[in-house]
Amino acid sequence: MEETISALVEAYDDVMVRGQFSLWFEDTADSGYAVQATPRMWALPLDVPFDIFAGAIQQMVIMYPDATAIGGVSCGAHLHIEPVQFVSDRERAVELARLRRIPAIYDITTDTKITI
Description:
By secondary structure, this protein is of the alpha+beta class. It has one domain (2-115). It contains three helices and seven strands; from the N terminus they run αβββαββαββ. Helix 1 (2-18) packs across helix 2.
């Protein structure tokens, strides 16, 4: 529990300092494809209090058990948060994206976005 709280505090600090964050639930993938686990990102006010931010992340973990990471980026007055699933096979990544109505996947190996 203490480790989880520490990770959430670090992610919250990253948002406030760098405008983005990443929380990894598995070892960082250095190859394969990243696919959003949901067709729409969640949006919170950029000045969201920590307890609301932490609650949203915890809710996302429960709702999207296939997610291997959650990331977020500030955009104007909002913080956009999305769960991500890492997949080693490109065909499977494309299939998941189509099922979830996601317009693109991200190739981790080549560091490029692939439009579906």
